[in-house]
Design brief:
extended, 10 strands
């Protein structure tokens, strides 16, 4: 009997903007989609309910990493000023050998929220930058 392949690990990933690799991200959140369903009951039919797909939505993607430069801050600042720059944000998952096994694209992504972790003089933790991106949905590719 053949052994089933091991599941992929959640810590082997890379982030790209417009096919340019961006390193150092420690966490990615919001890789999800939800399809809403509308129920419809037909008159006289008590044991069946029609369920129709209405709309699929995608939450914002959140990228977190240790604060190192002003690149994401400046991109968000331009968005605040009304100069929205949409880019393709790609999340690339790699296997134990470092080979690409999954690639998700969020097209038309732009930053809608920027934040820093709390500043705390009694802690020696790395200062984490968090940037939230709106986008047009996830596609494999």
């Amino acid at each position: 009997m053949t052994r089933q392949q091991d599941p992929y690990r959640g810590f082997r990933f890379l982030i790209e903007f417009e096919r340019l690799q961006q390193g150092g991200f420690s966490r990615v959140k919001g890789l999800a989609s939800e399809t809403k369903v509308e129920s419809y009951r037909e008159g006289g039919v008590n044991d069946f309910e029609h369920r129709h797909v209405t709309q699929t939505s995608f939450p914002n993607i959140v990228l977190e990493h240790g604060l190192t430069n002003e690149r994401l801050w400046e991109w968000h600042r331009r968005t605040v000023e009304g100069r929205v720059e949409r880019k393709t944000l790609s999340v690339i998952l790699r296997d134990a050998n470092g080979d690409e096994v999954w690639r998700l694209h969020a097209h038309g992504a732009y930053p809608v929220k920027w934040s820093l972790a709390d500043l705390d003089a009694s802690s020696s933790a790395v200062l984490v930058e968090s940037v939230e991106f709106a986008h047009h949905g996830l596609r494999r590719g």
